[in-house]
Amino acid sequence: FYHYLMKSVSRKNLIFICSIFSFLGFCVLAQAKTGLYSAVILPSLCLTAGMIRGFACISLGIICADIWEKIENIKINNSIANTFILGCIECLLLWYFIQYSAFHVRKFNIDTYWQLIFIGIFFLFLLNKGFLSKFLNNKLSKILGDFSYSIFVMHFPIITICKKYFWNNFTPEISAILTFLICIIIGILTHILIEKNINKIIKNWHNSRERESNSSAKL
Asked: Rounded to whole angstroms, how far apart are CA atoms 158 and 155?
């Protein structure tokens, strides 16, 4: 659906459409009585909370990409002072995001508020001007980036299982660290054992279809 929009709609109209999707999606989620991904919150349209969150977040991602294209060439002096100031802002936002979204009852239980905090961290890391983003910009982070989709896909069932079986046996901090490590390990295994093999099967199937169509064209 989004590939179709990006190919068929002008950039200006695309951002307008995505703004509407993102705004409406987060409004629905804010009014929903449940935050469960599997919960059907619009039965008449057969839409779940996860589907609506997907529309809202992908739309928001396209808007952020458009903003980034406009500001990525912004010139920031690589002075020690700027590196320190931006690094402190990175650390403060990241600490706030993790601390109050994972370990405490949220003071602002609003999806849009936490999305804005995350976007702030995201753009600061893209700028790569603070000491924290420079420190995290290493080979290990790039390797984990290859597994990021599988980690994302697997994180929700892993969190659900961990929450049920061992969160009550440890402090919140230890539970969060263990869950994080398990998500990464399972995500890496999923990527190696499943995702890569499926991609190879799809690629081979696509290549065979192309060969068949080329041979038919020659005949």
From this structure: 5
172 and 210 Cβ atoms separated by less than 8 Å: no
Per-residue confidence band for 88, with pLDDT thresholds at 50, 70 and 90: very high
pLDDT digits (tens, 9 = 90+) for 161-174: 988 888 888 888 88
Contact by Cβ (8 Å): 132, 91:
yes
Residue 71 CA neighbour count, 13 Å, CB half: 11
H or E, element range at 127 = helix 111-127
CA atoms within 13 A on the CB side of 84: 3
Q: Output DSSP code: residue 79.
A: -
Q: Could you please report the per-residue DSSP string of 202-213?
A: HHHHHHHHHHHH
CA–CA dist 2, 14 (Å, integer): 9
Report residue 115 as tokens: 């999305």
Nearest to 62 by CA among 20, 29, 15: 15
The count of residues in the chain is 219
Place of tokens 């700028």: 127
